[in-house]
Design a protein that fits this description.
With 289 residues, this protein is α/β, with parallel strands linked by helices. It has helices at 24-35, 51-60, 85-90, 109-119, 136-148, 163-177, 189-198, 242-249, 258-273, 279-286, and strands spanning 10-16, 39-45, 65-68, 82-83, 95-99, 102-106, 128-132, 152-157, 180-185, 201-204, 230-233, 253-255. A 6-stranded mixed sheet has the order 2-1-3-5-6-4. Strand 7 (128-132), helix 5 and strand 8 (152-157) form a beta-alpha-beta unit. The radius of gyration is 19 Å and the shape is globular.
């Protein structure tokens, strides 16, 4: 069918910085076209300093929902009227719906990530995860992995001003999910090596290795990666990060963040439209490596 913007077109969007590399607009607009839905999805470069004004303006303009990417998944929290249970536990939001003038915060990152693991052909339920990062994406992954039955999670982040808050998150999530969760110092190479040696999967939920800084890796020594390890990077630009190249040389199975993007986007799509995204067609067009 022909796809045209009309006077009744509903607006959805991505907020973050940078956003010019994102394929979310292509993915969502193609899904709207395939289903004949009168929606459009745009990307706006928004920083923490401009987030409040951007949200107020979009809400006043009648937006029906939006996504958030780095670095806004935590900064959005004070601007919301309500959180879903998973978003409350994660303390981070990547999807917002507008219902009767109220902003409702959701997290689809964790569910998208866990579905991407299964899509890649791996089962990590009942096994241990080493998780790098303490931001919004890492928190969402930690929550969903714990809810789904990953037995233990070692979360590594730097000891900075948010350390105590992240510790509270880990303790709360562990108590509510019965998953053994530890918060460890990212700069302690010995602890990192020990954790990876005991883990079925290593997940990089930091921005280390993302373009334009694609020559960086979150791992100080590739020898930490053992051949039985699954290495997952939530970054998808570049498609093959330095961490993934290191993992391949060590004989590890690995995959990037493209399918996490697909499945978290599909969940957000349903939040806004009440429809299922035509995943097979979107996957074939935009996510075939």
């Amino acid at each position: 069918m022909n796809y045209e913007i009309t006077g009744n077109t509903k607006l959805t969007a991505l907020l973050g910085s940078p956003v010019s590399h994102s394929i979310s607009p292509q993915m969502h607009n193609e899904a709207f076209r395939l289903l004949g839905l009168d929606y459009v999805y745009l990307a706006f470069d928004v920083t923490p300093d401009t987030l409040k004004d951007a949200v107020q303006g979009l809400k006043a303009a009648g937006i029906c929902g939006f996504n958030l990417t780095m670095p806004l998944k935590v900064h959005i929290l004070p601007l919301l009227d309500e959180l879903t249970p998973a978003a409350r536990l994660a303390g981070a939001v990547n999807t917002v719906t507008v219902q009767n003038g109220r902003l409702i915060g959701h997290t689809t990152d964790g569910a998208g990530y866990m579905r991407s693991v299964a899509d890649a052909g791996y089962n990590i339920i009942g096994k241990k995860m080493t998780l790098l990062g303490g931001g919004g994406a890492a928190a969402a992954i930690c929550v969903q992995a714990a809810l789904d039955g990953v037995s233990s999670i070692d979360m590594f982040k730097r000891k900075n001003a948010s350390w105590d808050k992240t510790m509270e998150f880990c303790l709360r999530t562990a108590s509510e999910t019965n998953c053994n969760i530890r918060l460890l110092d990212f700069n302690d190479a010995g602890l990192l090596a020990e954790s990876i040696s005991q883990s079925a999967i290593l997940t990089n939920a930091t921005s280390l290795g993302m373009a334009p800084d694609a020559d960086t890796s979150p791992i100080p020594d590739p020898a930490m990666l053992h051949p039985d390890l699954i290495v997952s990077d939530i970054i998808y630009n570049p498609r093959k990060t330095l961490l993934m190249k290191q993992a391949e040389k060590q004989g590890c199975a690995c995959f990037n963040g493209l399918y996490m993007l697909l499945y978290q986007g599909a969940a957000a799509f349903t939040c806004w439209t009440g429809k299922e995204m035509p995943i097979a067609k979107i996957k074939q067009k935009y996510f075939s490596n």
